[in-house]
Each structure stands twice: as structure tokens, then as C-alpha cells.
């Protein structure tokens, strides 16, 4: 086998990003800020985008997820695939698999395996940004009392591994300045919130605009 040597210097064209946040904070609305988006929806909560004409594919089981992926492999009219949300999709698949087995451990194991494959396939879609949404989980350490916030997924093993699939993990949060509230995406980890930016192009707090964030990571002007 011939050895092929490449370089670590890569020009970024397409961003693959995970973002989580508490209910009602506006995670779904972020899809409307992405360039030429299409939404893969496992939820019914698209009211926040009712005034925008964004195409949606609803998925209710594993077969429909696979059909959506197959379609998007050759759908050149979209620049961004938004999956809303991974948490709901995992819960949907878990319920589907529990009906097929009497052992819940097998259902959780299969859910984790299938979700890992789904994340990898959508993440690796060529010529597209991919934006994954997750619900937020609040946990408290029983010994230290420390409270932490992470992406919410059923099944502990897959939940722990999920952030490793992505170079960009953000948390949509609400801050206050001069008594006025504003939303921002945290991209650096803190004592309480899980986040990361392997591109090293983003500030610790970024405005909630996916086109702006994608362009910043790519090194192009908004």
C-alpha cells in the first residue's frame, strides 16, 4: 500500500456544530440564521420559525431518518442541515426499540449504536454545514454539590461520548447587560458549562447567528 502524506493545514469550508440549551431559549430559532437551511425535525416545536419559509423533513422512526440522510446526500439546494433535536430523536428511537425487545438494556444499547451512526453520517455530509441541536441536562454532584450543564441524551454511555463527535460545541445562554437580557453562544468550557472550539477562531461568547459563526470559522467576511 502506498503511503499518502497529508498536512494538518486545512481550509475549512463546512462547519459541523453541536449546540444545546434550556427549553424555550431559542435553539430552534438559530436554524433561521443559517445559510440556505433545511431542518430534520424530530420535534413539533417549529412555531418560532412560522414566519420563515424553511423546508422541513419530519422523522418519526429510524427508517425515516435513513431516508432523509439518503435524500440529503445529493440535495445541492441546501447549504445547512439542521437536526432538531438529537435528544428528541434518541428518545424516539429508544421508544421504538423498547417495543421490539423485552430487555431495556438491549434497547439502550441499540439506541446508542444507531445514534452514533446517525451522528457520524450526518456530520460527514459533504458540501454542507451541519447543525445539531440538543436539549440541556442539569446534574448535581452528590458529594460536592457542584451543578453542571451538558447536552441531554438518554443512555449515559452515548451522552458522555456525544461531544467528542464535534469540533464545535456551544451552549445557548441568556445574559444581562444594563438590565437588558441578550442571548449568546458560549464556546469555551467553564466550571458549569460544557463547550469547546477546536477551530480557535471563536470568542468565548458569540452572537447567536450561525451564518456569522460559520464565516468566522472559515475565515471569510460575513
Explain the overall architecture.
The protein is α/β, with parallel strands linked by helices and 222 residues long. The protein has helices spanning 62-72, 86-98, 104-123, 156-161, 210-218; strands spanning 16-21, 37-41, 56-58, 80-84, 129-140, 147-152, 168-177, 180-186, 196-197, 205-206. The chain has one domain (16-218): Rossmann fold. The protein has five helices and ten strands, in the order βββαβααββαββββα. The longest helix is centred in the middle third of the chain and has 20 residues, at 104-123. It is globular, with a radius of gyration of 18 Å. The model has no long low-confidence stretch (mean pLDDT 91).
